[in-house]
Predict the 3D structure of the following.
Amino acid sequence: MITLFFKKLYNYQIKMSTFILGIESSCDDTSAAIIKNTKILANIVANQEVHKKYGGVVPELASRAHQQNIIPVIESALQKAKINKKQLNAIAFTRGPGLLGSLLVGTSFAKSFALGLNIPLIEVDHLQAHILAHFIEDEENKSIPEFPFLCLTVSGGHTQIVIVKDYFDMEIIGKTIDDAAGETFDKAAKILGLPYPGGPEIDKYAQEGNQNIFKFPEPDIPDLNFSFSGLKTSFLYFIRDRLKENPRFIEQNQADLCASIQLTIINVLMKKLKAAAKKTGIKQIAIAGGVSANSQLRKVLKNTEKELGWKVFIPKFEYTTDNAAMIAITGYFKFLKKDFTDQKAVPYARASSQ
Ligand code: KG4
Ligand code: ZN
C-alpha cells in the first residue's frame, strides 16, 4: 500500500526534476551532495585530518572544522552539479544521531539556507540514510533491494540488524550492547599503533596477512545482539603480554594481527546476520555504514550469497562511510511525501533505539 503510493509519486516526480541539497555533519566528515531525483550530481566530502594524531574524534575540534568546511563544501557541490542555488527544491540535513556540536553546524546552516531560499527543509536520520543509500541510482540497471530486506548497519557508532519493510518503516532486531564494530576496528588499530580511523588501516595490512595465525575469543551473546567490549579487552591484554616477551612483537606480526582481528570481527557479524536471515526467512541482505567498506567483509558476503542463496547488496565504496549523498536520497523520498520540518528542528545526539 505504502509502496504503491511511493511508486505513483515516484513515477510522477521522475518526469520532473527535483534538486535537493543534502548536508551531513554528524561526526568528523563535512559533506554536501546534490541529487536530481535519485541520481547524485555531486557528493563532496571533507575529511577532518585534525583527529588523526589523537587516535579518535575530538568533538570540539570536529565542530570547529565543520564550521570552516561547510561553506566551501556546499559551494563545491553546487559547482560540480552545475546548478545554481536558486534551482534547489529543498534542503535535507542530518538531524541525528551524532555529536551535538557537529550536528548543530549542519542543522543551523540548513535552516538558514532554506529560510533564505524560501524552500522546504527536510530532517534526516543518519542511520536510515546509511540504509537508503542503496536506492541511489547512479549506474545503469543497478539492482536495488526489494522490501522487506535485512540490513546490517555497521559504523563507528552503531551495529544493528534492521528489517527494512519500507523506506521509512524499519525494525531493529539486533544491536550491540556495548561497542560498535567500527569502534572495535578503531580501538584494535590504536593498540597496534595505527592512526585513526583504524578500520581502513587494518583492512590494508590484513591483505598481506594470515587470518588464522592468532585466535581471539568470539562473544556469546543471546538473540541477535552483539558485544565487542570483551574482544577489545582480550586483544589489548594479548598484545600487552606479548610485548613483555618481545618488544618488537607488533612490528614483526602486524599483518597477521590485523588479518586475525579482522576475521574475528567479521565472524561475529556474519554469525548474527546468518541467524537473522534464518529467523526471518529474508534472503535479500544489504550492508551499510563505514565498516561495509571492509574488503574482507565484502568478500565473505559474496561467498555467503552463493552458499546460502542470498541476494546481497553492497553499497558503492563512496556511500559506505559518512557522505551527504545518502542524506540527499533520503531527503528525496521525504520530499515525495512532503515530509518537511520547520525552523524549530534541533539536533538529537542519540537514536531513540540504538
Ligand atoms: O559510517 P561511518 O563513516 O561513521 C559513523 O557513522 O560512525 O563509519 C566510520 C567507521 C570507523 O570506525 C572506521 O574505522 C570504519 O567505519 N571503517 C572501516 C573501513 N572503512 C571505514 N572499518 C573496516 N574496514 C574498512 N575498510
Ligand atoms: Zn555513519
Q: What stands out?
A: The chain has ten helices and ten strands. The pocket of KG4 (ligand 1) is lined by residues 27, 155-157, 182-183, 185-186, 197-200, 203, 289-291, 293-294, 321-322 (CB under 6 Å).
